[in-house]
Every structure is written in structure tokens, then in C-alpha cells.
Amino acid sequence: MVVCYTGGGTLGHIYPALAVHEELVQHAGYRAFWIGRDENSEREVVQKQGIPFFAIRSGKLRRYRSIQNLLDIGNVLSGFWQAFFILKRNRADVLFSKGGFVSVPPVLAAFFLGIPVVSHESDASAGLATRINAHFSRYVCVPFAQGFESIKASKRVVTGNPIRSGLVEKADTPYDETELPFIGRDDKLLLVLGGSSGSQQINTLVRTHLEALTQMAYVYHQCGSKDVQNLRIERYTEVAFITDLLPSLLKRADLVVSRAGANTIAELALFGCPSLLIPLGREYSRGDQIDNALHLASLDAARTLVSETDLNRFVDEVKDLLDNRQKRTMLSENSRKLAQKDCAHRIAELLCSMKE
Fold this sequence. Notes:
This protein is an alpha/beta fold. It has helices at 15-24, 40-48, 67-90, 104-112, 128-134, 165-171, 200-208, 210-216, 246-252, 262-271, 288-298, 308-311, 314-322, 325-336, 343-355; strands at 2-6, 31-36, 53-55, 94-97, 117-120, 139-142, 156-158, 189-193, 218-222, 236-239, 255-258, 275-277, 303-304. The strands form 2 sheets. A 7-stranded parallel β-sheet has the order 3-2-1-4-5-6-7, sandwiched between helices. Strands 10-9-8-11-12-13 form a 6-stranded parallel β-sheet, sandwiched between helices.
């Protein structure tokens, strides 16, 4: 079976698809390739898994009037024909779309070539690309049963969000305190995650209140490669991006302060982390992170700070949770209920059924 993956815009579109690839690579006769945008970090992550990567042109899908929308029609058409010939040349049996603007031309091309399409939406509501792709997809995989009424019920499949097998395996192993020797046994751990590229808003909040935070807990702060300040403060570690230590930090964390990206939320649920979510605002996004955060808050699976006014309570919220084990336990237990360890396996089986 030959599977074409498509999607991009952030690594959040890449890693879930690679989790599905990890499941399928065990199947005899399986081959994969990727159609994405011409972006080095995405290309490198995909190629590191041994998957050929083909870059195409794509236009941004805007929700507002702009002359650029007309100009980008040419990019979309160009991307369609590029994807059309890539799919035909590589004899794809099925296309799996993880969304993002770049996914639309390959989905359209696959539809016209008669190649079955399976799309996946990670967030608590469907983005514009997913809503477009849904018209040309045989199935649309979604994380929750609610919130996707705009997609035909006959196409919706509730799967959850795929997580890399390495994280799933490590979530089931006991915590080893020797992996984090710099954190005292009696210290509470406040883990701060701003996404793969960091978060200026969260970074500023943490640094503004660093003295108060380090009095409450050891602070381990992922700040993004563009905002490393190399601060040397007791009970504080700052890194650009967390790699191998992530599972140990998630197991050890008493509280996680994070954005509300779908993949991060899935990982927090997997490890049962109590969290304080600060979603990216509507001025910078379509509001998907707000939807994600509010969904978890409605289930008592996370605390949220959504508005600028809410952010004034940041230190108080952190202190309230760090001081109250019962509240953290409630968030942890409700978060863990949302974990779906076999999501990648279920999607892999669905893709295999497209070939039968």
C-alpha cells in the first residue's frame, strides 16, 4: 500500500501523521511519501523518518477580504497540478491529510484522480482547510464526538489525536528520578511549554513573575529558539526546545503551563498532567486554541486563562494549584480520561481499509 501524507504550516500538522506512519511501517509492502510546503523544518522532520518529501506551491486560505486572495488563486492552481502529477507518478493508493493550507491542492488532486482521501482534524472545531477537504474526503477523523456538526455524520470518525509511539511507550513506564537530577526530591516542578517555536506571551509572563514562581516551584521553561535569554537563576532552567527529557518532565510535573495546541493537549492527557492553559488569541489565529482550552475547562480537565484580564491572575492561579493537591488530582484524573493511546493504530487500520 502506498500512502501519501499531506499537511503543514506547523509541526503540529506533521507529528500526528508521523505517528500514523509509525503504525503502518510494520505492514509488508507499505510505502509512503509526503506532499508539503517548501519549509526546511517540516521537510527535515519528515525526511528524518525516511519519507520522500515533495514541496508544492500553496495559497493561504483567508477568512477576510484581501487582494492577496485573488493572487493566491494562482498558487492553489499551481499546487493542484504539482500534486496531481506527484500523486500519479508515485501511484498513491490513499491520501491522508493533516490539514493546513498546503493540504487543499493535494486533496483536490487525489479526489480527481479517484484516490480515496482520509482527513484528520486535531482541534475542538474544524478549521477552514478541513471544512474544504471534508467535501472531498471519504472519512474525516475528529478528536471528539461533539463540535463537528458541519461535517456529514456519515463521514465523521471519532479517533482522538495520534501521538508518537515513543511517547505512548514512555507514558507507561515508571518515573525515574535519576533522569532529572537537577530537581530536588521535595521540589514541586512547574513545567512551562510554549509550543515548538515558543510563546512570547507566556515567556513574558514567566519572566515577569520569575521570582515568585521559583519560590513556589522549580521552573523548567521551554521558551523557543528565538527567545533564549540564558538567564541563570536558582531553581530555574531555560531551554529552546525539549526533546529527550519531555516524557520525564511530564511525569514529574506538578503543574504544566502551556498553550492549548491540540497535540500538546493530547500529550498532557496521555501523561495525566494537571495544566493551566493560556491559548493563542483570536487576533493571531482562528481561535482553535481557545476552543480547545474551553472544551477541557468544561470537563474540569484543565484551568484556563483566556483574556488579557485573566492573565492578571496568572501567579494566583499557579499558586492556587500548586498549593492544592486535591485540585491538581482532579484535573489530572479528568485529563487522563481524554487520553486515547490507540488513535494512531485506529487511523492506520482505516487507511488500510481504503485499499481493500
